[in-house]
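Transcriptional regulator
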Amino acid sequence: MNKPLFDHETTLKALRRAAETAKHGTREEQSGKFLPPPGWKGHLVTAADAAPKHEPRRKRA
């Protein structure tokens, strides 16, 4: 018979910690370290923002 990877108490501790993080956020999120400054107008960077590639070469006739 296979032995479980984690014991029951370790699993419960991890679940409690995950629930607390989901409810209150991480330490960095609580401190505001990752919050944008007031008045910041964000811009989502997408692939369209990348430098345009050169035109494909045409075959000579």
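thats it. The CA atoms of residues 3 and 56 lie 59 Å apart. The two ends are 72 Å apart (CA to CA). bye
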